[in-house]
Amino acid sequence: MPSLRGKITATGAAAALALGVTVLAPPALAAAHGGRTDQGRAAADCFWFGPTPSLASREQNYAYPDSGATYWAAMFTLPVGATLTFDGEYAHARYQSLNSYDVTTHVPTDALNDVSTAPDPGSRNPYLPGALRAGGTHRSYTATVLGEQRPADPAARAANTLYAGVPGQRDIALLYRVYLPDRGRDATGGTGLPRPSLHLADGTTVTGRAACDAVRAQHRATLPLTSLAPDTYRALRDQPGKPAGFPADPSPVWHTFYNSATTIACAFQGQCGGTPAKSGGQYSNRDNEYVSVEVSRAYGSVLVLHGKLPRTPATVGRQPFVATRTDLRYWSLCSNESVATTAAVGCLDDEDLVTDRDGDYTVVLSLPQDRPRNATSANGVNWLSLSPRGDGAGHLDNSMLILRNMLPSAAFGHAVQDTRVPGDERAVMGPYLPTAAYTTTAAFEALGRHPR
Predict the structure, then answer these.
(1) 375 lies in which domain range?
(2) What is the mean pLDDT of residues 355-372?
(3) In a domain, 345, yes or no
(4) CA-based torsion, 109, 115, 116, 118: positive or negative
(5) Domain boundary residue among 214, 238, 273?
């Protein structure tokens, strides 16, 4: 590693985590993302475990993972008076962040991302607009994680500080994320995972396995899972009198994700109004917001989306400077099973997506055997598989889609972040919210070249 390394410091005490969530085990259905990276230095250690959640294995495919991102988790208890220091660097990637979570609800409590983390003296932040992205040195930063609630007044926040406290809890759970590493870099963006050193109250410093043992780091296979219990899901899905495609509609409707309870009430009970809080869930990233839509092959074997891609910064090709004129930091569309498993099938991110000269795109979704012959990137059409396992709970026609928007610019105004109440998605997002319509393989093939 280069000699200049960043630090993330955690202070305070936390108790051991209470686990025990009843779930369905989700399947792994997706291939590796674009062959852009290798695991290299991405392997977990005694402190960080993962990647999790991940499309790469059956056990880790949950919480709707995005194939453009890699996630590592930490669960630990700090001794009273101790300080935990992580050594790391700004990743060579599109984005990186550290989020803290309520371990019972899986709701994010705070986030510290790349642009909100100032560099150490003598270093630079390679994520700022116009900044130099290249270079393997002078990339260090120092940040602090506190077992306290974030201040109600943003002006009262301490610089470079993540507030991980949850009312009534003393638990600390963290997710470290890296999105779209530069081509040829490993999943960490070529900088490895932040490395812990524990500084005890008596002045002793321990590292490596000794530090992990001292904080009782839970070196697990997964985080506490997030799916519904099987009986709960069946009661919601198999309501008498519902059409074969339930909970999908013949004319697909996108809904903003406010929180898990609101999403379930809307999809399965038709309660889609009100003024719900955008509190998140499913280990969501505070820098992302989402719209989702339930879909069903009962209405057609092929689903066609048309939309406009917001401007995002190209980074995978090791572009030397950060773009200065963008609408979003990151965009993706993912095909998923359902709330029964929260498993993902595959995703298209903004650098995968084929668009025309105006930034408009067509995405065709189907099972692999129903893919139209003209649904190819060479023909200007993106293709993404629907779930071969359906909802993952025995309903083979059902699945769902999730569209992500990350860190919109203040001037954009058409991001998911700009939606305010259920039902305003189309009015707010305009052409950036894709239209969706069912068809058949033969009907789409009849459109020929460059179908629109």
Answers:
(1) 230-445
(2) 97
(3) yes
(4) positive
(5) 214
